[in-house]
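Appendix B, record 7
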Amino acid sequence: MNEKKTASGWRERLTSPRTWHYVGAALLLLLVAVLAVRFGLDWAATNASSTDALAGKQVELKAMELQTAPLRGLEGRVAKSRKQLKQFYDGRIPGNYSSIAEKIGDLEVKSGVRLTRVQYSQGKPGEYLTEISMDAGISGDYPAIMHFINSLERDQTFFVIRAMALTGQQNGQVSLRLRVSTWLRPGDAAASGLPSTPEADKTAAAPAGEERE
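Structure tokens (predicted):
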């Protein structure tokens, strides 16, 4: 009898609307919990992806900043370089061939040396400058020659000593062969009438240049 009552009670509970209401509520809560977990996982993945994308963009921006850093202020540096170049041309590049010859002659007199077999020639015209070479013999006592060489190197006119070789020494007098370069603007070099060096004109004979005894 008790077993029949118990079975009957369970059947009543199973068929009771309240029981199914509880079951439905439990399933609904379970579904909400599952959806909440899924939403949380998706949110975390999306947030991580956004963070990675943002970090990547920041790295790209930093790389671009480093690449463009040398270009900052480039216009100002170019203007400064042009100004310095103009000052160099105006102050240290001779205006014509005559000023070169006059300067060499002035240094010769002041140092007390003697120049012989002086030959001037010009190299291949450049875009901005043309090299002017002087090949000469120089003689005098050692202090006078050193004075002449030092004066060349320190002169306002831009001189470069290309070669220097001892050719003789007697009674305290020293003889050297000296090759010196300076530069003129291409137009001034063309107007000088100086012959070209063999390197500048392979088909021309070796230039006699200007000689002085």
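Remarks on this record: The helical segments are 2-14, 17-68, 74-92, 97-111, 142-154, 186-192. Residues 95-192 form a domain with the Alpha-Beta Plaits fold (CATH 3.30.70.60).
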